[in-house]
Amino acid sequence: MKIYIDGRFHSERNAKISVFDHGVLYGDGVFEGIRFYNGRIFKLDEHLDRLFASAQAILLTIPMPKEAVAEATIKTCRLNKLKDGYIRLVVTRGVGNLGLSPYKCKKASVFIIAATIELYSESVYREGLKVATTGTMRTPANVLSPAVKSLNYLNNILAKVEAIQAGAEEGLMLNAQGHVAECTGDNIFIIKGGALITPPITAGALDGITRRTVMALAVHAGLPVREENLARYDIYTADECFLTGTAAEVVPVAQVDGRVIGTRRPGPVTLDLMQKYRELTAREGAPIYSR
Ligand code: PXG
User: Is the CB of 150 under 6 A from ligand 1?
Assistant: First the structure.
C-alpha cells in the first residue's frame, strides 16, 4: 500500500507522522472519508469543499489548493491500483510544541490513505440495523460545531460504545434540547405518511454528503422531503427508518431502543432509495484512471 504524506508516497511501514503533531496531541485537525466505486471517486468535490470548510472553521490553513488535494487523492487511488474502496483524507495541525496553541505549528500536514473497506455485513442491509439511544449527547455548536468534521471523535466513539454495550449496532444521539441529531457516524431519516423526514443540520447533525445525495434522489423521485426536528417518539412510530453515510451508504433500521420500526423488514421507500443510491455510485464520480 502506498500512502500519501505531504507530497510524497510511503510504504505502509514507513507512513508515519510526528508524535509532536497536534493532530495526535490534541485531535487538532480535520478529515474526510470518501468512497470510490468502479474507478470513480464519488462526490470528490463535495468532500473537498467540506474539508476546506471544516479547516476554515478551525483556522487551519491547508497548505495546498483544492485542485492539488484532488490530484493527490486521485493519484493515491491510482498508485494503489484500486477500483473500489475507501479514502481517508486527513489534515492535521502539524508539528508544534507541547502547548495548545496552534500558532506554534508551522505547517499543516496532509495524508491520504486509499484502501478497501469493511462494510456492515450483507445481512444488515437485508434485515436492518439495531439502534439504541445514547446518554452521550451530540456536541452543541457552542462547544464544537458538529458541522466541523474534526479529529475529535471521542464524543461519537463513546456514544458508539454505549450503543454496543446496550446490544445495538449504532447509537442514536440527541442534542442538548433532546431532539434527534444523528447517529455516531451516520445521518438519520424516517418515512412517515409518505414523506421523507430528517433532522435539520441545526439540530446537531453533520451536513452529510450521503444525506444530501439521498434527499436529492428522493426529490427527483417525487417524494416529499422535509427537514424537521424529531423526537424519539417520531422515530419509534415511523413507517420506515434508515441511516446514511459514506461508509454505510443507505442502511435500513429495524429496531430503535427495542421498538420494532414498521414491519421490521426494510420498507419499500428505503429499498428504492438504496437501489437508486447504488445506481448513482456506479455511474458518477471523478475518474481515477482515464487521464
Ligand atoms: N454524521 C457523522 C457524525 C459522521 O461522522 C456522517 C454523519 C455521514 O456523512 P457522509 O458525508 O459520509 O454522508 C458522518 C461521516 C468511518 C467513518 O470511517 C465515517 C464517518 C465518520 C467517521 C468515520 O466509518 N462518517
Answer: no
Torsion of CA 43, 230, 252, 48, to 10 degrees: 10
The candidate with the shortest Cα–Cα distance to 212, out of 183, 244, 237, is 244
> Residue 149 catalytic?
yes
**pLDDT single digits (tens) 245-264:** 999 999 999 999 999 999 99
Distance of alpha carbon 17 from alpha carbon 19, whole angstroms: 7
User: Mean pLDDT over all residues of the chain?
Assistant: 97
Instruction: Give, in words, the CATH class of 2-115.
Output: alpha beta
CATH architecture of the domain formed by 122-281: Alpha-Beta Barrel (3.20)
Produce one character per residue of 203-227: b if its CB has 16 or more CB atoms within 10 Å, e if not.
Answer: bbbbebbbbebbbebbeeeebebeb
| Nearest CA, atom 21, ligand 1 | 185
d(CA 77, CA 54): 23
Instruction: Ligand 1, residue 46: give the atom nearest the CA.
Output: 11
